[in-house]
Amino acid sequence: MSELRNFDLNLLITFDVLMEELSVSRAAERMYVTQSAMSHALQRLRQQFDDPLLVRGAGGMKPTERALSLAGPVKALLRDANTLIQEPESFDASESRRRFNIAATDYMDLLVAPLLMERIDSTAPGVDIHIKRTQQPFPEHDLEYGELDVVLGFDAVLKPATYLAREKLFEDRMVSVVRRGHPKSGVKDLTLDDYLAMKHMLISRTGTRFGVIDDWLAERGLSRRVALTVPHFLSAPLIVAQTDMELSLPERIANCFLAQAPLTILSLPIELPHYDLVMVWHPLRERDPAHRWLREQIVSVCRTLEASKS
Hints:
Elements lengths: L9 H12 L2 H7 L4 H15 L4 E4 L2 E4 L1 H21 L13 E6 L1 H6 L1 H11 L4 E6 L6 H5 L5 E5 H4 L6 E8 L1 E6 L12 H6 L1 E5 L8 H7 L6 E6 L5 H6 L4 E5 H8 L4 E4 L8 E7 L7 H21 L1
Parallel strand pairs: 3-4, 3-5, 8-9, 8-10
Antiparallel strand pairs: 1-2, 5-12, 6-12, 7-10, 7-11
Helix pairs in contact: 1-2, 1-3, 1-4, 2-3
């Protein structure tokens, strides 16, 4: 048999029909070609496979052993090829029982997860969401092999590879939070000296005592005293509300904390850039209907957050 690059794969369709009909004339009718054209195609198949494939007998055409051995694999190959070129099946969220895996920080859990689950409960009650912590380095492998569907977080922190697909969800900026009645709670414009004189609290998932603010200060030969480091957001508002410590964090989270504890938000005397919150996914799943549906839900929720802020 010739090499694949020299083989006319359309002949496999002809072979499959001939094996089903065991008749050149009936196969020609099914494929809307003349009997002469079908005979010519059979002759080419015989040349390609170096086998008669179909021979005349007393009761009509009979397949050779070679033809019989090819019939199943050829049919399977055509079925797979047909699946490959078909448009992806539509995704019916209302009937789906799929579970999606999302990597996100506590920040995204607090802001996005409640609204996302409320939306999913009303439109796709059978869909489950599994949220995992984001990792460093960025989990490219998990996205590529489908262990994660999307990653949510700050673009500057995630630092995803440029070939990965991403969409900006919204921006946020850093602010300062202190308890109501704190000596500096009534200060309209907190100075850098005021800020550095405070005892600070830091939320650090990795346990490091340094964050983006400490990096900014270090570049200018300055430092602050981080009196307490905690690994998550849960206890932070209660601790700040009962101490004279200051906590610097994204403004959207700070506003969430105001509903949990008697706190005051102050402007930071530090010129940090706004941070882009992004959703990252692998291009392999760009056109997958279910995956596209998930991304649309997340974008819609984030637009709601953005609208509520304004």
